[in-house]
Amino acid sequence: MSNQNNKSRCVVDGIPSEPVGSVPRPLDLQNAMAAYTNGHLTAGELEIRFDEAVQETIERFEASGSEVISDGEQAKSSFATYPLEGLDNIASDGVVIPFVDGHSRQLPRLTKGPFRYAQYAGRYVQRAKKFATRPVKQAVISASAMSLLYPENGLTDYSRKEFTADLIREAVADIRSCFDSGACNVQIDFTEGRLAVKLDPTKQLLQQFIDLNNAVLSHFNEDERQRIGVHTCPGGDHDSTHSADVPYEDLIPMLLTINAGRFYMQMASEENPEKSLKLISEHLRPSQRIFVGVIDVVNEKVESVEEVRDRVLTAAQYIPLEQLGTTDDCGFSPFSDDVATSRDTAFAKISARVRGTRLAFEQLQKQL
Ligand SMILES: [Zn+2]
Question: Please, what's the b/e burial string for 91-115 (b: 16 or more CB within 10 A of its CB; e: otherwise)?
Fold first, then answer.
């Protein structure tokens, strides 16, 4: 395989290490987004601000040593709502997701069919590629999260079946747009996986979510599926979570039945990571790589390089080296108005992830 191919496939020496995606937006960008919403800034001016924020974010990402980078999701309203920006067939009163600190986020609700994405994530890749010199990954929202838009009582003239067919086609097009725009891999944000077990302990809802995401993945060939990942976490917003109280063991075996090649799994903030790692090792398929979370994004304290190294070494006791990667537990700012973590802290943590992962690899090499 040529170097160029290696670069486009995110192949690196050692243990691959990737971000989940988001980085807190700079305050001036947040102000610009608010000014645009209030009609005080034109779309053209906002585009310039997005370019500036993405360029600065990518420069800092590359300076952190991260082999694979993202655009920090600077131009997304949130990890879940970007396909809906500008749609005229949604209302604001959809499903409510409560977080343990008392705050909540509410998804929109579809008011009529047909359902179409207003935009595809490939546009973010195109912007990032203007500034990046390293491989760029792109996160997309899962079809299962978008399935929550369909109202419980149904819609006249637009059945759930029709909605699901449209949704699958749009989710496939969203992923395809990222590859077509040059993303080295695509990560499906599946933050509602663990939440599904909380909402329905019989796990039927989780199974429905997995079936839907597998229906999307069935439109890609094996080679493409190797470049598609799934991110799971108990939610991360304003330094709080929505489903950390659901035992990871209730999710992991079913999660690994998703036909994706990569899994970006929150782990640093787990109370008993070894229990979860053991379960992963029992259910891991040969075609799957696990990117273990070694950075706790809810905790403001920046991990030391040695702390990260030790987390990687623990994971390496359970997961074969050729199937191991590292990541952050979650994005640092999945919603555009979440500034609970500063940009400086986020990049310090990213740098610790990269350096700690390298240190662990060096140590593991010596043991071989
Ligand atoms: Zn997450």
Answer: eeebbebebeeeeebebbbbeebeb
